[in-house]
Every structure is written in structure tokens, then in C-alpha cells.
Write a structure and sequence with these properties.
Length: 283
């Protein structure tokens, strides 16, 4: 929690104003921000200086792991974060490859589960990683990437958190996640939850102990219409201790994640928080 608040304060103190072409808004921006999450100690990085809706973040992660390509699929498992990008993004609405309402195109999990080869075959990156780690193999390339420049025009949004690298040392699994762009007031807590949960889940289903999760952010920013709420409200609040995340121990395979797992299989305990803050969202 403290590293999150420190990053927010750093952006306010050191940030440079940058015009964002996609949203038409200015962002107060810093470059290079690293966060580390103690998955081994189950210190769940959930924001306590405002209420955080962690269930939607985990639902979105499940959708990525399943390779979903429709906002309707995400809504069905408890996540509405793709509604706007799928249906209100002017550039995507005018894209001839869009299949209709709720279509997201070839983004995020589609790339992770069905990366397209030139000959038309697909690569399931996630399955390769799970198979290797289950056998105790780390070939220094246990990499899940959603970043496919050749297909940016086939999806509604380039991935922000774009690459996850798993590393196995003995029986301890580590994760390094890379993010090109981060809306810190709104997006970062989603991303923190997902990095932490991804390592915890993959360690559990591959039979390893989770270690640390390293989260590397390139462009961290606060939008101009979020700044006052962050500076004058959230940063004035005193944080509570970190909660813990409990995951159903019956989740033992990638097939489990693909089929029967729901939000009921995740529980956050000892979560104390301040009142919600309605930060503006930029499409």
C-alpha cells in the first residue's frame, strides 16, 4: 500500500504534463515505476485509502486466461471494464473488422491463448507455460505476451499490461509483469490485484510455492480530471494494514481455470478501507 501511495505522490511532485491524443486530456506523467508484491507472505496489494472492487479485477484476469474476446463474456463472469472500449471507442466502432456489439477483437487473452502464426495455426502461450512449470521446467522463456504489433488494428485496445515472465528457482515461482501505460488512480489497483493473483494461481496449479511478484511500469500517469481527488482526498487518508487473499485449494489445473472457477473461489479477508472515490475514466 505504501509503495502505491509513494508513486502517487511522486507523480504529483515530479510529473510532467503530457497531452494524450487518444483521450484528448492531459496526464501528469513519470517514467519508470517498479512495485513488488509479497505473494509468499500473502500481503494482498489492495488499496485501503479508498474502497477497491477487487472482484472485477480477478474476473477480468480469468477472462484473459480463458482467451475471451467479447465484453459480454467478461460481464457474465462479473467484469464490466471492457464495455466502454468495446462499444464506445470511436476508432474501434469504425473499424471494418469489428464483428458487432461487445466484440473486442484480437486483444489480451486472445493473443495469450491463440497467437496467430503466418500459416494460420495458433500458439497457446499459456498452456506451454503451465505444462513446463508443472514438470519443473523453466527454459528462461516462460513468457506470456499479449503485445502483437502486427494485429493492433484487429482489436479495440493495445494491451497496457502486456507481458508476464515466470521464473522458477528450486520450488519457488516468481513473476515479472511489464506494463507500458498505467492510469494510476483507476487502473493500477486492478493491475496490482491481477499480478498478485496470477502468480498465486499459477504457483498453485503447477505445484510450486509463490515468491515475489515484480511489477514494472513504464509510463505512470494521473489524468488532469483525477488530480484533485488524488491530491486532496486519497493522499490525505491514512492507510489500513494489507488484507489477505484466499484461493480455493481445489483449483489444481488450467482446465479448472477454463471451466468451473468463479469469483466464489476467491475470498479477501481483513479488508479495511475508506469510502470509494469516483475517479473519472478516460476511454
Amino acid at each position: 500500500m505504501n509503495q502505491y501511495l509513494a508513486l502517487c505522490q511522486r507523480i504529483i511532485d515530479e510529473g510532467v504534463w503530457v497531452e494524450n491524443e487518444r483521450t484528448g486530456k492531459r496526464c501528469l506523467t513519470v517514467i519508470n515505476a517498479d512495485q513488488t508484491y509479497d505473494v509468499a507472505g500473502n500481503q494482498f496489494p489492495l488499496i485501503t485509502t479508498r474502497k477497491s472492487f477487487w472482484k472485477a479485477a480477478i474476473a477480468e484476469l480469468l477472462g484473459y486466461l480463458r482467451g475471451y474476446d467479447s465484453a459480454a463474456q467478461f460481464r457474465a463472469i462479473g467484469c464490466k471494464t471492457w464495455d466502454a472500449n468495446a462499444n464506445d471507442n470511436a476508432a474501434w466502432l469504425n473499424n471494418p473488422v469489428r464483428k458487432g456489439e461487445d466484440d473486442m477483437g484480437r486483444v489480451y487473452g486472445v493473443q495469450g491463448r491463440r497467437w496467430q502464426k503466418p500459416n494460420g495455426d495458433t500458439i497457446d502461450q499459456l498452456k506451454k507455460i503451465i505444462d513446463n512449470l508443472t514438470k519443473g521446467i523453466d527454459d528462461r522463456g516462460e513468457i506470456l505476451t499479449f503485445y502483437n504489433p502486427g494485429e493492433f488494428d484487429l482489436g479495440c485496445l493495445r494491451p497496457c499490461m502486456h507481458t508476464h515472465t515466470f521464473s522458477l528457482l528450486g520450488d519457488t515461482l516468481y513473476l515479472t509483469s511489464y506494463q507500458r501505460s498505467c492510469d494510476v488512480p483507476l487502473g493500477l489497483n486492478f493491475n496490482q490485484v491481477q499480478v498478485f493473483t496470477l502468480l498465486a494461481l499459477v504457483a498453485q496449479i503447477t505445484g510450486h510455492k509463490p515468491g515475489q511478484a515484480y511489477h514494472k511500469i513504464v509510463n505512470a500517469h494521473i489524468y488532469e480530471d483525477q488530480l484533485e481527488l488524488m491530491r486532496d482526498v486519497q493522499l490525505k487518508r491514512k492507510p489500513f494494514p494489507s488484507p489477505q487473499l484466499n484461493i480455493n485449494p481445489d483449483i489444481k489445473s488450467l482446465e479448472d481455470l477454463e471451466t468451473w472457477v468463479t469469483l466464489d473461489d476467491f475470498e479477501v479477508v481483513n479488508y479495511q478501507h475508506h469510502e470509494p472515490i469516483a475517479y473519472p475514466f478516460s476511454v
